Amino acid sequence: MNLRDRATRVVVLRVLRDAVEAEYRAERRAVLDGLRAARAELALKSMRVTMPDDTPIATLTLIDPRPAVMVADEDAFTGWVATNHPGEVETLVRVRPAWQREFFARLACSGPVADPHTGEVIPGLTVAPAPEPRSFSLRPVPGGAERVARAWRTGEIDLRRLLALGGGET
Question: What is the dihedral of CA 14, 17, 19, 22, to 10 degrees?
Answer without folding.
Answer: -130
